[in-house]
Specification:
The complex is a heterodimer of chains A (649) and B (256).
Chain A lengths: L4 H8 L25 E7 L3 H4 L3 H12 L3 E7 L3 H9 L18 E5 L6 H10 L15 E5 L15 E3 L6 H15 L4 H9 L4 E2 L4 E6 L2 E7 L8 E2 L27 E4 L1 E2 L9 H5 L4 E2 L2 H15 L3 E5 L9 H9 L9 E3 L10 H7 L7 E6 L3 H7 L5 H13 L4 E8 L6 H21 L4 E8 L16 H15 L5 E5 L2 H11 L5 H10 L13 H10 L4 H6 L13 E2 L4 H12 L64
Parallel strand pairs in A: 1-2, 1-3, 3-4, 4-5, 9-19, 10-13, 13-14, 15-16, 16-17, 17-18
Antiparallel strand pairs in A: 5-6, 7-8, 11-12
Helix pairs in contact in A: 5-17, 6-7, 10-11, 13-14, 14-15, 15-16, 17-18
Chain B lengths: L1 E9 L8 H15 L15 E3 L8 E11 L20 H16 L7 E9 L6 H4 E11 L3 H12 L4 E6 L2 E6 L4 E8 L5 E9 L7 H8 L6 E10 L2 E3 L6 H6 L6
Parallel strand pairs in B: 3-10
Antiparallel strand pairs in B: 1-3, 1-4, 2-3, 5-9, 5-10, 6-7, 8-9, 10-11
Classes of the chains: A alpha/beta (649), B alpha+beta (256).
Chain lengths: 649, 256
Amino acid sequence: MTSLWPQIEPLLAQVVKPARYIGGELGAQRPMHGAGRVSWLLVYPDTYEIGLPNQGLQILYEILNERGDAAAERAYAPWTDMEAQMRAAKVPLFSLESHLPAGEFHVVAFNLSAELTYTNVLNLIDLAGVPVRVADRSSDHPLVVAGGHCAFNPEPLADFVDAFVLGDGEEVVGEINEVVAAWQAAGTGDRSQLLRALSRVPGVYVPWCYEVAYDEGRLVAVTPRFSDTPDRVEKRVVADLGAWPYPRNQLVPLIEVVHDRLNVEVFRGCTRGCRFCQAGMITRPVRERPAEQVADMVRDGLARTGYDEVALTSLSTADFSGIEHTVAQIVDDPRSNGQVSVSLPSLRVDAFTVGLAAEIQKVRRTGLTFAPEGGTWRMRRVINKLIREEDLYSAVEGAFSQGWRRVKLYFLIGLPTETDEDVLGIVEMARTCVDIGRRYQRGVTVTASVGGFVPKPHTPFQWFGQDTAEELRRKVVLLRDAASRVRGLTLRWHDPKASVAEGIVSRGDRRIGAVVEHVWRAGGTFQEWSEHFDLSLWETALAACGLDVDDVVHRDRTEGERLPWDHLSAGLHHDFLWQDWVDALAEAPVEDCRWTPCYDCGACTGIGVEHVVASAAAPAGGSQGTGQDLSTGGAVPVRFLETPPMAVP
Amino acid sequence: MVRVRARFAKLGKVRWTSHRDVARMWERALRRAGLPVAYSGGFSPHPLLSFGLALPTGCESTAEYVDVVLDPERSRTGGETWWTADPGEEPGSWVTRMAAGFPEHLTPLLPGGVDVVAARSVTADMPSLQQAVTSCTWRIDVPGDPAPVVVAVETALAAGSLLVSRERKGRTEVDDLRPSLLAMRVVPDAAGERATLTVETATRPRGVRPAEIASVLGVSFGTACRTHQWIERDGSQEEPVVTRPALGAELLGCAS
């Protein structure tokens, strides 16, 4: 393989942000290619700035490059200006480390984090010079694989991706490498043998090995074509996060990217049980990283990278056992000289405590973000996000009283059973927050950020008919009118049309593949970007494929209906999910099973993995799983220190 | 507070990063070294670094500069390192010794292509780089037949004004570049395949980018490298930090 750099460099003067294409990050590897090594190109199907921080990709990058029989490089989607230059100059997709052509790698692996990147996946396969359809590939072409949260409904990409990985990739990536190496060594060149061997690896789903049957426009069966193909593919779970302290060498980019800081994953999985949240459902059980390992990874990571900010990541970081101690340790470390700030994404107000608030504000005070998700207590019972208004208000009061000026609130609209009263409850909550802020200072701002809910596979809401764009739009207008009367409140909303496109793919079956291809061929790349998103491309594509948006997106599914991902398992029992859906409609909440008895969702028992949680008690103030009366919510002791924040030098 | 002025190069692939990117690279490298960099006050403290003229993205340089403000109060924190002050060492001695260690110790902490070539201490009353630098020298490589380039340079130098237009805040502004072109010479290569332009440009009223020079000459350039920044003092020119000639010559043939 030869470097394409001499052909690439002349293009860079013509494009914006040319450093997206040069590599050279701290932590970038110099992979050894050659005989006996399977070469992997790990691709994030969005821009460099969005893709680089992705932790999943970085973890696999290190694990593969530590192996003696593998070599891995990275690529990201070139922005449209660069793509045009590349296509004109006949430069294919290339890797960043050695600037090698993508088509010459043995495996091209995609991270699937968002449905609207699927057209980019097709575009990148094409830009690699590889046929986009599985059926058109020969043994000369790379194996195309994909993993990540969206792989839990892979059907819309089933015609384009050779194999999908369900669940944690740390272990299975090596198993796939071995299967590919053995196939190469056998030298038959028969691609179907490789696909069948992969389909026998636990956690790997090879769509080509399954026949799909429809009846009267409904999916009725997904059947293995071979006797050694499993009927059902179970996800992979890493039992002990402590055994995988990755990334050890987090990449430090040369240009500014999103989440541009040290990121340390403190636990994986979440059992708060928010019913809209796919991540919380498919990543169970909860596996905490040992606190000492977190401390080591933070200390070593800061020293190695030179970052002055560290994020402790998870789906709900305030739930990490001993979070206050962990944060204090980082902030008070003399080596950080009072300059290292800690950010805690996914803060729950009910677990946001005295000590935590005091610690995170010592260094730098950015905005505080909370996610009540629903505007009324009734709505929050439906979605099982049991944050009481009092919890939120006392957290917000604490924040404003200690000098914070900006608070951001996340909400969803288009939730099951939602009424206009629930929608307007969002403005009521935000208005109260502004009023609280005014008691302490002038010029406070509260931003309410509102997204349109898209039901996701493997969640209790997978049966729910998504709101139409018109209905979401009507609710946005309701909110906008109400919010316009509140000074200090800024309302932001997600484009309802984008929610529809996301909905087309989210729960789509294999027939949606033709829609994705149609949109891509019509030029619809970068659909995550508002300047490129175009719903009409999706509508045209649906019509061309004889599909109806109401049927695909807005229709309630029935209990007995075959769902496109029923042959794939995230560990959750069908009965549990259905019961949780019924409970949601009855406004009946469930507790967090980390600290209360098991309600048998299936995640632990099916896989033989337990929750790994250091603390037997829920964090102070948790309103779920603390044994309190859920019908009224709990008393939540959120208070703040009365002293002003520490002076910064 | 004490101040260290470092001279560094920006060569190779890293030339495609921006001026702001370089500032972040420096901030991280200084933190990795654990150096006691001084911070601004306020709710969002930031390290006190100041850079001279911005280098346009895509250009190389062997003459970039940064001033770093350090806190002598913390000269003995952080354990035994290359920069730790000796017990009782005067700040003046400490900063001189520390500056001397910059090339060796900071270069490995910066991305490949960003090399610290020299550093010295500067006193607090020295004007900032932004104020002090009055001109710089560029070496611009122009591939192709040198003959028309030679003619274009002669024409440009003879011209009374060289107007260029640029978009600024949605408006088109027309500037005269001629007063900013202090000197310009062109050397064709022996094979007749390229020309090398050496141009000295003033920094005021505004800096001039190599792309603008190429555009007034009507040529397209391959690479451009800033080889010097100059401070005018008592009628003569000097560099903010002088490098040993041997060191400059090592730098990928970019030095003039």
